[in-house]
Amino acid sequence: MDLSEMTQLYKSELLDNVLPFWLTYSQDTEYGGYLTCLDRKGQVFDTDKFVWMQGREVWMFAKLYNDLEQRPEWLECAVRGGEFLKKYGHDGQCNWYFSLNRQGEPLVEPYNIFAYTFAAMAFGQLYRATGIEEYASLTKRTFALVLEKVGNPKGRWNKAHPGTRDTKNFALPMILCNLALEIEPLLDSHQLERLANDCVHEVMEVFLRPELNGIIVENVAMDNTLLDSFDGRLVNPGHAIEAMWFIMDLGVRLRRPELIHQAKATSLTMLDYGWDNEFGGIYYFLDREGNPPQQLEWNQKLWWVHIESLIALLKGYQLTGDETCARKFRQLHDYVWQHFKDPDYPEWFGYLDRRGEVLLPLKGGKWKGCFHVPRGLYICWKTLEAIQQRYNVS
User: What pLDDT does residue 59 have?
Assistant: First the structure.
């Protein structure tokens, strides 16, 4: 398959398969928002609404409306979710609940920082699409709360006993790398540069460990030292690789080519580290000392891990010309399209066992929604186009 055919493959999969699935089955025309717990055929199997899933779907359709094509049905879908979130998703002070029932009544308190980050992303894109100042205000107020919570993301819902083994987690500085670029138009230039540099420092100088051959760990002590515990030894290859394409984007924005090359190299390191040489695909969790991980699902193959890795490899090739990225991309592309794409119904499977067999045939749930698959297809499509233009290949 040449690059032109591959570009068309990602484009048509997004526009003709995945997006129509979510437009058809997820929109709750009775109560607003989205129903994300969908079986293989798109039928609803649970009506609870998870705020971070709501925010992700708002963001996805608003993003495509803003950057791809101003289709009225995309904006209508985004506004449907945004208005539901605005009315029911928070406590009136932009403290975003984790989950709601179908009608919008809160089920789980606002303990999860990622409900906040994806609400901010959602309303930032909605503001771009509509110019409605209330959406901009929600973005800025929510973002301010995120920054306040950096030191203790779960607040009073933190279960850890203070003082014994205080840790910080990779996920928040990682997502802030992406969030800062997402809402850049609503930040002043000094705030963006300060936040970006802080996040780059945390990701590339704290969680990336040269003494561990350049792998990224999920948790470190508050003084940035390594911890010998389940959490301290935890490695999530997909998380690390996803963060690397965020860092590449920041490298472009900050005009730091050395950062782009470092992130590309780290993507390759983490891909090799997490690759299953026997059955193919990328492990979900690993223990950096080779001990049994505490996560029983450690050897599953998850959709988002592989899709984010496709993005990182393509961006690495686009920005540096490293042929290793191109070769690894084709290897991973073959695995992904063989195992995750449902041959009979729209959208993709999310959960495979180590051998690549489907564990759960659902298309959406508490953790999988309208985000990684469509975002990945869109970015891969556009990056493949950019590669063709830059290197004059087809």
Answer: 98
Instruction: Return the SS3 of 146.
Output: helix
Which pLDDT does position 391 carry in this prediction? 82
Sign for the pseudo-dihedral over CA of 54, 59, 61, 62:
positive
- Count Cβ atoms within 10 A of the Cβ of residue 366 and give its class: 0-12 exposed, 13-18 middle, 19 or more buried: middle
Could you state, in order of their start, the residue ranges of all structural domains in the chain?
A: 167-363
- Of 101, 68, 2, the residue nearest 333 (C-alpha): 2
The token pair that represents 304 in the structure block: 């988002």
Q: What pLDDT sits at residue 362?
A: 98
353 versus 150: the higher-pLDDT residue is 353
CB 316 within 8 A of CB 248: yes
> Residue 68: how many CB atoms within 10 A of its CB?
14
Is 2.60.40.1250 the CATH classification of the domain at 167-363?
A: no
The bridge status of strand 99-100 relative to strand 301-302 is unpaired
Q: State which amino acid sits at residue 154.
A: K
Cβ atoms 61, 75 nearer than 8 A: yes
pLDDT in tens, 17-59: 999 999 999 999 999 999 999 999 999 999 999 999 999 999 9
Are 280 and 335 in contact by the 8 Å Cβ rule? The answer is yes
- Using alpha carbons, select from 325, 283, 282, 311 the residue that is nearest to residue 375: 311
User: CB-based burial of residue 40 (10 Å sphere; 0-12 exposed, 13-18 middle, 19+ buried)?
Assistant: middle
Query: pLDDT at position 162, please?
Result: 83
Q: How far apart are CA 175 and CA 124, in angstroms?
A: 15
Is residue 250 classed exposed, middle or buried when 0-12, 13-18 and 19+ CB atoms within 10 A define those classes? buried
Q: What is the CB-side half-sphere exposure of residue 306 using CA atoms within 13 A? A: 29
Token pair, residue 346, equals 């729209």
- SS3 state at 253: helix
C-alpha 363/C-alpha 345 separation (Å) is: 10
Cα(78)–Cα(104) distance, rounded to whole angstroms?
A: 17
Report whether pLDDT(392) > 90.
no
Longest Cα separation, the chain? 58
Q: What is the pLDDT of residue 188?
A: 84
What's CA 356's distance to the chain center, in Å?
Answer: 22
Mean pLDDT of the chain: 96
What mean pLDDT do residues 66-70 have?
Answer: 98
